[in-house]
Amino acid sequence: MSNQQSLTPLKMLLFAFHATNTIILSYLPLYLKYKGLDGNEIGYVLAVGPLAAIFAQPFWGYMSDKYKTVKRVIQVCIIGLLITSIIFFQMETLIAIILMGAIFYFFVTPIGALGDSLAQRRADELGVSFGKIRWWGSVGFATSSLIIGEILTRVGIQYMIIPYLFFGALALLVTFRLTDVKVESDPIQLKDVSAIVKSKPFVIFLLFIMFLSITHRANDSFIGLYIEQLGGSEGLVGSAWFVGVVTEAVVFASAGFWFRKYHPLVFVIIAGVLYSIRWFIYGAADSPYQIIGLQFLHGLTFGVFYLASFNYISRLIPKLLQSTGHLVFFATFFGLSGIIGSLVGGALIDSYGGGTLYTGMGIVSSIGTVLIFIYHILPYGKEAYVHDQER
């Protein structure tokens, strides 16, 4: 079997899963509004996702490393996604929605991380670019954001469960053709996991990139509201997502050409500078079209930042603990940062408006960029390559 054939199921998994992700990210708030929830209540439900991720990511990462399979854990999580989503969408009261939402997100949040972890390892095994595999996730996200938006506009938001289950079932089907990773070592013990948490470079790096990831997650939550504040429609929100994710896909697809030229931390710093510029300009915007026009920066910020951070984390972690390390990274990037970004961002946009929120995000990301630059020139930033040489 050729490399291309063996990677096809993995690419299709990323495509299908990220297509489901778009539906939740873009349309769940509208669905909850249709169910009769107000803005505050919707905020509580959306905060459950990142909160569940903090527990779910390390748990499923540990299970993956313990039983030395990424494929089986992904299958269990997708089956959980299909069953719990059907129940989740039947709930009517706020408490029931939140409780079922926590169980639903417990299965959903690790799938992207495990898919990327598998893609990183398969890319290393086959000597291909991780970005070229990962860009299929972005293509799935972009395709779904256009097509599903159009469908739901015509048939009604109450039917969003149908396309969600369609892409979820597709994701499950392709997992049966996935090539799993082989790790030739003893199953890990809990004491091995503590080695990750005790790694100073790992913890300090996660702490510093949180200054950037908090702003990224706040933008995920509130760009739609900000476009609305500037006089834009729901259609313009969809366009903004589409433009951003298309450029993200281009960055991932072209990673093989530019990525290995410098140390990953150099790219994290470049992304940090661009994040800061992007948020300050957004903060000064007075038209929704200015936001959409600058959404191409999403690829140059998130695309570069995520690819470089993920690569650097992979260098810091021994192969035996790759899934656990990747999912701790995800729990921080999407979990903890998501909770802080949602809560603080929500308070700021409610009290002072989107302009103030984005200006504040520009200041926070500037601080993070300076901290990562200092980290890079200190010995900690060099240790990743020492670990890499030892493996």
UniProtKB/TrEMBL annotation:
It is found in: Cell inner membrane. PROSITE patterns: MFS. Keywords: Cell inner membrane, Cell membrane, Membrane, Transmembrane, Transmembrane helix, Transport. It comes from the Bacteria. It is a multi-pass membrane protein. The chain crosses the membrane at residues 12-30, 42-61, 73-89, 95-114, 135-155, 161-179, 200-218, 238-258, 265-285, 291-313, 325-349, 355-378. InterPro entries: HcaT-like (IPR026032), MFS_assoc_dom (IPR024989), MFS_dom (IPR020846), MFS_trans_sf (IPR036259). Pfam families: MFS_1_like. The keyword Methyltransferase does not apply. Residues 161-391 form the Major facilitator superfamily (MFS) profile domain. One of its GO terms (molecular function) is lactose binding. One of its GO terms (cellular component) is plasma membrane. This is Putative 3-phenylpropionic acid transporter. It comes from Virgibacillus massiliensis.
